[in-house]
Amino acid sequence: MCKQGTMRLLLLLQNNLTGEIPASYANCSTLLRFGVNNNSLSGSVPAGIWGLPNVNIIDITSNRINGPITSDIKNAKFLGQLFAANNRLSGELPAEISEATE
């Protein structure tokens, strides 16, 4: 999906999508915005997505996503906004979240 390295936005909002977020999305290193909010996605967010190096917005609001926000988030150096309300996330926010923005 991201083999050419040119995708900047992945917005799959309000589509009644089900299943898990594909791990292959973590290969989209040029993404600036990752939005899958208001669907019925489940499972955990693949670790690489938390650490997309150029992403500035991650929005997973209003799904059925579980699991933790992983320490990979420290690699998201430009992350300015993280929206994750109305899910089933668990664990503590990793201390590395403070390293996410330059």
TrEMBL record:
One annotated GO molecular function: receptor serine/threonine kinase binding
SUPFAM superfamilies the record matches: L domain-like
Coiled-coil annotated residue ranges, if any: none
Keywords, ordered alphabetically: Glycoprotein, Leucine-rich repeat, Repeat
InterPro entries, alphabetized: LRR_dom_sf, Plant_LRR-RLKs
The name this protein goes by in its record: Receptor-like protein kinase 7
Species this chain originates from: Quercus suber (Cork oak)
Lineage: Eukaryota, Viridiplantae, Streptophyta, Embryophyta, Tracheophyta
